[in-house]
Design brief:
By secondary structure, the protein is mostly beta strands. It contains one helix and 28 strands. The protein has a domain at 102-116 and 128-358: YVTN repeat-like/Quinoprotein amine dehydrogenase (Methylamine Dehydrogenase, Chain H, 7 Propeller).
Length: 359
C-alpha cells in the first residue's frame, strides 16, 4: 500500500446485501497521515458495526458523525472515540446524515425503511419527523427503500430534499415538518425508451431506474437548481423538483450510472460525480465540473477503479485533496490538486463500501 500523505481518511463498510449478506467485513476504518495500514475503529461503536455514511462537521473537523445499524454515533476527538446519541429507535439503520448549512446545531438523519429524523442540539437528542413516508413507487421484495441523501438548500434552508432509493424524491418547504413527493416528472421521463430500466421493483415497471435515487446536491452558485444522481444518469430541476430533465452526462462519459454528486466546499461552481457501469460492476470513474454541471471531465488518472465508485469527498480545508471509494474496497485520492492519484486499499475482506470522508 502507498503511504498516506497529509490527511486522515475514513471509510465505512457493510457486511453485504442480498446473496452476499454477512459475507464481507464491515466497519469503520481510518488511515492516519503518514501510515500504510488501515485501522479498524471500534471504540464506542456497536459490535459488528456497519457504517453507511460519514459526515464531518463543517465548523469543527474533530466532530464526526457516522450512521450505523443502531442509529447515529458521534466522535468529538477526530474519530478516535465514539458515543451513541439520544436516538429514539434502537436498531434503526442510518443511511444518510446531513448538517444544516447555517445552523450547525441542527442535524438530519435518514433510515431504511424510509424515515427522517432531526436533532436540534448537535445530535444529542432526536425527533422523528412526521409524514416523511415513502411513496413506495418501486419497493422490492427483500429490499427496504432507503433515505439515501438529505440535502438542505444553503440559500433557503427550510427547503429540504430527501433522495430515496428506490422511490424517487420527496421535498419539504418547512424544515421537514411536512413532505410531498416530487417524482412525477421522473416517472414521465421513464416513458423515453433510453431511460427505461427495471430489476424487479413492484408498482412501477420500466420506470424503476428513474426512481433509483442515489444522491442530491444543491450549489450556492445555483440555489434554484437541484442535481439528482440516478441509476440512469444525472438529472436537474430548476423549479424545486416540479420538473426534472436529463443533463446528458453521456456527452462526457461512457459510464452513466451515477452514484454520488457533491459540491466542492471551496468553490460553489465546482462539482464532483461518481460514474460507473452499474451497481455491481468492474469499472468506475470520477468526474469534475467547473461550471455547475454544464460540462464534465474525468480527473482520476493513473489508478483504475476495479468496481463501482460509490462516494466522493472533498477535504473541508484543503482544496487540493479529493477522495473517492469503490464498492470493492479501494479508496482513490489526490492530495496535489489532481496531478497524481493514489490507491489506498482497504483491508482484505472489505467489499461492501459506501462511505468516505477525510479531515
Amino acid at each position: 500500500m502507498t503511504t498516506n500523505g497529509k490527511n486522515r481518511i475514513f471509510a465505512g463498510a457493510g457486511h453485504g446485501e442480498g446473496k452476499n449478506l454477512g459475507v464481507y467485513r464491515g466497519g469503520l476504518f481510518c488511515l492516519p497521515p503518514g501510515e500504510r495500514e488501515w485501522r479498524s475503529v471500534t471504540d464506542g461503536l456497536p459490535e459488528n458495526v456497519e457504517v453507511r455514511t460519514i459526515v464531518v462537521h463543517p465548523r469543527n473537523s474533530n466532530v464526526i458523525f457516522v450512521g450505523t445499524q443502531d442509529g447515529p454515533y458521534r466522535s468529538t476527538d477526530g474519530g478516535d472515540h465514539w458515543e451513541r446519541l439520544g436516538f429514539p429507535d434502537r436498531g434503526a439503520v442510518i443511511w444518510t446524515m446531513s448538517i444544516h448549512p447555517t445552523q450547525p446545531n441542527i442535524v438530519y438523519a435518514g433510515t431504511a425503511p424510509i424515515a427522517l429524523y432531526r436533532s436540534e442540539d448537535n445530535g444529542d437528542n432526536w425527533r422523528k419527523l412526521p409524514q416523511a413516508i415513502s411513496p413506495a413507487h418501486c419497493e422490492r421484495e427483500g429490499f427496504d427503500s432507503r433515505t439515501i441523501r438529505i440535502t438542505v438548500n444553503p440559500e433557503q434552508p427550510d427547503d429540504i430534499y430527501a433522495a430515496l432509493e428506490v422511490s424517487g424524491v420527496i421535498r419539504s418547504s418547512d424544515a421537514g415538518e411536512t413532505w410531498r413527493d416530487v417524482s412525477a416528472s421522473l416517472i414521465e421521463l421513464a416513458e423515453q425508451p433510453h431511460l427505461q430500466s427495471s430489476i424487479g421493483g413492484r408498482h412501477c415497471g420500466h420506470c424503476e431506474g428513474m426512481l433509483d435515487s442515489h444522491a442530491l446536491a444543491i450549489s450556492p452558485a445555483a440555489p434554484g437548481a437541484a442535481f439528482l444522481a440516478l441509476r440512469m444518469g444525472l438529472f436537474r430541476s430548476d423549479d424545486r423538483g416540479a420538473t426534472w430533465y436529463d443533463t446528458n452526462i453521456d456527452r462526457f462519459s461512457p459510464l452513466t450510472y451515477c452514484r454520488d454528486v457533491i459540491v466542492s466546499p471551496h468553490d460553489p461552481r465546482v462539482m464532483y460525480a461518481c460514474l460507473s457501469e452499474a451497481a455491481f460492476s468492474t469499472a468506475g470513474s470520477l468526474y469534475r465540473s467547473d461550471d455547475i454541471a454544464q460540462t464534465w471531465r474525468r480527473i482520476d488518472h493513473g489508478v483504475a477503479a476495479e468496481s463501482t465508485v460509490m462516494a466522493v469527498t472533498a477535504h473541508p480545508a484543503d482544496a487540493a485533496s479529493v477522495y473517492c471509494v469503490t464498492r470493492g474496497g479501494q479508496v482513490i485520492g489526490t492530495e496535489d490538486g489532481e496531478v497524481s492519484w493514489r490507491d489506498y486499499r482497504l483491508p482484505q475482506g472489505v467489499h461492501d463500501v459506501y462511505a468516505v470522508a477525510c479531515i
